[in-house]
Amino acid sequence: SDDEDKAKKVTVRFEKPETERSRKALEKSYGFLLRQIKEEPWIEVNYHKYGSEYSEFEHRKLYCMYEDEHVDQFNLSPQDYLNQLVPPTEEVKMLTPGLPSHLMCRSGLKSLDLHEHVKTAMINAGVASFTELIEVLERGNSVDFVLSVLKVLQQVAVLVQGNWVVKSELIYPKESKSESGVSNDLVQRGRDFVLYLFTKNTSVIRSEVAEMVRLPGADIKDILSGVSTHSTERGIWEFLLPTDHAFLKKYPEVFQRQQMIWQSRSEQLSHIFTEKIKQEDAKASVSSSRKSHSRASNIDDILSNQKHPVPAKQRKGNVAEQS
């Protein structure tokens, strides 16, 4: 037809080559993003609630342990690794929840300096052998450490039968009183008197102790229970631990030094008890004066180097016969 034969006017344009810069600019345009959204096909979604069996099953797929997974070895020293597990406390609190006021947790003890550690350990133990104490401290057993412990130990404890007993002033402070209302200064003297008797013998007689120290029965029992056990068959109190001959043999200079300390303390106690009897004698009648003189003589007998304790009644009888 005539219409088909007519020529059509066509405008030809040549597109410029696309550069990397122009392509990135096009991808950032809003029209390009909108076209991508329209062209994206829809996907059917099956919703499973959290906690359902299927969701838990799919969730477990997120965790995987490869058989060939390589784990680097620790590069920490044993002490550093322990500090990572149990960080040291910045401040040591003497009162730990759930423990008595005089006790501490083990981590708290280890953070103390050596003097306080030994002191606290002896207060808690009361009586301990040197070997047991080294094990309790858990700081090794090198020669330097053992000598350091031995030096500190002589400041907070006394030697009795080769074992160490905490000093009386640490468990009976002077500013306090006993449960019976007696000044702790008097209780200290009574306890030191008992400990001195145990340095001479492995057993003591309670009536003999009571006659000299003149303390309430509850205080005397508390002192004896802390360092000895009662033998009902023999009627005596026996020292808590057997004599540690190995320690006495290994550290003779410490033994000699402690003997000198006990000798000096026994002289002090003898003087104090004798003066006390004299004061009682001055207030008593003439008939009770002879009884006080008998007790004063008993002090010298007990504090002498006798190897076996003599019951008080027997000594009284001997004095009566001599008089």
What does this structure look like?
- The strands form two sheets. The chain has a three-stranded antiparallel sheet with strand order 1-3-2. The chain has a three-stranded antiparallel sheet with strand order 4-6-5.
- It has a domain at 106-322.
- β2 and β3 (163-166) form a beta hairpin.
- The protein has helices spanning 2-5, 20-27, 30-39, 53-60, 78-85, 106-110, 114-125, 130-137, 143-156, 168-171, 184-200, 206-213, 217-227, 245-250, 252-283, 286-302, 312-322; strands at residues 127-128, 157-160, 163-166, 203-204, 228-231, 236-239.
- With 323 residues, it is mainly alpha-helical.
Range of helix content: 55-70%
Shape: rod-shaped
Please outline the major beta sheet.
3 strands, antiparallel
Element string (H = helix, E = strand): HHHHHHHEHHEEHHEHHEEHHHH
Low-pLDDT residue intervals, each spanning 5 or more residues: 90-102, 306-323
- Give the tally of β-strands: 6
Strand content: 5-15%
Radius of gyration: 43 Å
Keywords: DNA-directed RNA polymerase, Transcription
InterPro entries: RNA_pol_III_Rpc5
Protein name: DNA-directed RNA polymerase III subunit RPC5
Organism: Halocaridina rubra
